[in-house]
Specification:
3 copies of one chain form a homotrimer. Chain A has 172 residues and is of the alpha/beta class. The first copy, chain A, is built from 7 helices and 4 strands, in the order H-E-H-E-H-H-H-E-H-H-E. The longest helix of chain A is centred in the N-terminal third of the chain and has 16 residues.
């Protein structure tokens, strides 16, 4: 028996930090903030979970989907807010799409990746993107409507569990 | 002397998790998010405090109150934003009340409780709803304007104390 | 050798709490909430850092600057949203400046300091205001455009480090 055996901590790697984002908003700027933080946390090897709920879920619908939902109310709501990570709008100064265009132009100039690219990066870094079951039900969004690589839907209780065990959690 | 006496932790129940929400927004969707999280945290027996501040306080004014405040500015502000948990508006797609109506319709279909019902549930689960003293002063809201069962008003210092002692806190 | 020497904790002051705000929004009310929390946390001797990013950075541009940025897109964006802590607008009920005027009037009546005064107070209390490097790049904001006393710009990784080490962090 070695001393290490009696003190298992000696051999272990330091416990990774845990970081949780409640991704609530579907606006371009907030989506961007979420993706920058999530991909950076992933790159820092934090255990990162993004719980995607309410308008946030629009961002994770496949870009090519034009309308989601089963009944007319759900269809109308998805139609009013074109889903997909590439179709987010600014919360202000949208100018019929002019605002986002300028933002993307500036981002490119300064080597800042678009939300969609950051999302792919974050997934590769092992960030968990997990949809909210209740939001899927209310908006009639099916697992097949969502981008590849998302986790199984969870509820508020599981999200709270994750948050209270995390080193930091943000509502964005 | 028993072994338990020398190690009091043995007899104790696990310490409950603490969860804090800064309820800042008065929008329907964010109110909903707050109420879902608060009632779920209450049901999970977390020590849950909702600090209600700025526009959030509008949600906790009694539904039947049409106007609050003492001077014309306070009255005008309350008039512009009808107070009460049942009168919250969507941040977008409000369509003169059509948006919330659709949301409530969908919620009912999928067995999601309205914010007002979740608020009652949360109170029964022991969630503490605490108004911000400064917001009450600035908007001229009296204790009697607020729904039953709220705690005594507190200030930013007490809210910060609660947050830094909590396992998770969110600004919604 | 005293017992204290073998147990250094005995002589130490209690470790100060750490508090982090991600100041993302440039709206008057949220700026106010940020400044109230930051100055209070500073007064409570918490180690307080405000990471200023996206629209939040507009608040920290000198009041007298009318336009910032190098190219026309950056200039246009700054022009649309007049920068400076004294020029924040309400997220709703702005009424061409009438809403903020009423808010300031009410604040004065009830001895609530304006955001700009709270910002000065917070700086004196030792609160660290740190700009986001990426936001400065994208909006073409130079260190000289910003108010005195801000820290060196940092990136998302450093912000994440601060958050996961803090006792509480909020995204406002």
């Amino acid at each position: 028996m070695t001393p290490a055996a009696s003190n298992p901590a000696v051999d272990e790697a330091p416990k990774p930090k845990k970081f949780v984002i409640i991704c609530y908003s579907g606006e371009l700027e907030k989506t961007w903030a979420t993706m920058i933080l999530a991909s950076t946390a992933g790159a820092m090897e934090m255990e990162t979970t993004v719980f995607v709920t309410f308008w946030g879920l629009q961002t994770f619908v496949k870009d090519r989907k034009r309308i989601t939902g089963e009944n007319w109310m759900q269809k109308m709501m998805s139609f009013m807010q074109r889903p997909g990570a590439s179709h987010r709008k600014l919360s202000k100064m949208n100018f019929m799409g002019m605002g986002p265009w300028m933002m993307f132009k500036l981002a490119k100039k300064y080597n800042v990746s678009k939300p969609k690219e950051l999302l792919e990066m974050a997934k590769e870094m092992g960030v968990h993107f997990v949809p909210c079951q209740m939001t899927m039900d209310m908006f009639g969004i099916k697992p097949d409507d969502l981008i590849e690589g998302m986790g199984e839907p969870i509820g508020a209780a599981t999200a709270l569990q994750l948050m209270t065990e995390a080193d930091a959690s943000l509502f964005i």
